[in-house]
């Protein structure tokens, strides 16, 4: 299992998995779409640039379409990583995702909307001892 020391590391893990899946699918993400994955108003890594990016993002993109796109990429990334955990250097990719989720959910980050949509039940069921 990979240990995540803070929300920044956990968020970076999820962003890296989304981008890796986009590359596998040849589904281009613009620089702005990538930067938007980091958005938080109150998280430990909150910055003015994030607010600037969101203002620009809202002018150019539909939030719901973007969230669905990212959730789809993340679900596929999870499925891929679960089938190929050795590429992450772990035995159980699901546990790595759960560990990152547990750390990240302690703060308020926009990416959690997409994580919950794509994987929320899978990540919470073991976290809270369900099944």
Describe the structure.
The protein contains six helices and no strands. It has 131 residues and is mainly alpha-helical. It has one domain. Helix 1 crosses helix 4, helix 1 crosses helix 5 and helix 5 crosses helix 6. The two termini are 20 Å apart.
Describe the structure using short key phrases.
131 residues, mainly alpha, 6 helices
**How many domain units?**
1
Rg over CA atoms: 14 Å
Summarize the main sheet: none
The fraction of residues in strands falls at: under 5%
The number of helical segments is 6
Q: Count all strands and give the number.
A: 0
Run of helices and strands: HHHHHH
- Gross morphology is globular
pLDDT below 50 for ≥5 consecutive residues: which ranges?
none
Mean pLDDT score, rounded?
A: 93
């Amino acid at each position: 299992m990979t240990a995540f020391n803070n929300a920044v590391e956990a968020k970076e893990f999820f962003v890296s998995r989304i981008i890796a899946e986009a590359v596998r699918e040849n589904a281009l993400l613009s620089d702005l779409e990538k930067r938007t994955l980091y958005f938080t108003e109150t998280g430990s890594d909150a910055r003015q640039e994030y607010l600037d990016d969101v203002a620009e993002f809202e002018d150019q993109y539909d939030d719901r379409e973007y969230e669905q796109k990212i959730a789809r990429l993340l679900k596929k990334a999870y499925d891929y990583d679960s089938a190929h955990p050795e590429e992450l250097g772990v035995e159980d990719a699901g546990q790595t995702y759960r560990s990152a989720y547990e750390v990240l959910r302690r703060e308020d980050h926009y990416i959690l909307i997409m994580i919950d949509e794509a994987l929320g039940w899978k990540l919470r069921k073991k976290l809270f001892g369900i099944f």
